[in-house]
Amino acid sequence: MIDHALRHAFPADRRGKISVSVELTADDIILVVKDDGVGLTVTDSGHIGFGTELMKMMTHQIDGELVMDCTSGTCFTLTAPLPLAIDVVQAARAKDPDLFTPQNDR
């Protein structure tokens, strides 16, 4: 999702912001990637591009949910069940113990 924003949100020399947040709930991990770029282009036939379709397929493989909001830039919200996500978080924490610590606790 971050790569998608870097490639498509800011054409030419356009500047902008990309924000990434991760939240752990009792059952899920929620990843939000948001940009203030040009937004997604959806064709008249509803086609949204291969990269977005790929993200949707990968989300389906992990029994997750991908929500897209294109009202102001683009915002992808990926929600994945924790049994799978715990392995990802533990691997990331092994590399950086503060990675998923709330900012006010750092």
Report the major sheet: 4 strands, antiparallel
Shape summary:
globular
Total helical elements? 3
Taking the alpha carbons of the first and last residues, their distance comes to: 26 Å
Structural class: alpha+beta
In quaternary terms, these chains amount to single chain
| Overall strand count | 4
Q: Percent of residues in helical segments?
A: 25-40%
The string of secondary-structure elements, in order, is HEEHEEH
* Major β-sheet strand ordering: 1-2-4-3
Could you list the spans in which at least 5 consecutive residues all have pLDDT below 50? Answer: none
Radius of gyration: 15 Å
**Mean pLDDT reading:** 80
Strand content range: 25-35%
Present the secondary structure layout:
Blueprint: H1 2-8, E1 18-24, E2 28-35, H2 50-61, E3 65-69, E4 74-81, H3 82-95
Antiparallel strand pairs: 1-2, 2-4, 3-4
Provide an overview of this structure.
- The chain has about 110 residues and is of the alpha+beta class.
- It has 3 helices and 4 strands; from the N terminus they run αββαββα.
- The protein has a 4-stranded antiparallel β-sheet.
- β3 and β4 (about 75-80) form a beta hairpin.
- The longest helix is centred in the C-terminal third of the chain and has 14 residues, at about 80-95.
Which features would summarize this protein structure in a list?
31% helix; 4-stranded antiparallel sheet; alpha+beta; single chain; 106 residues
Sum this structure up briefly.
The protein is of the alpha+beta class.
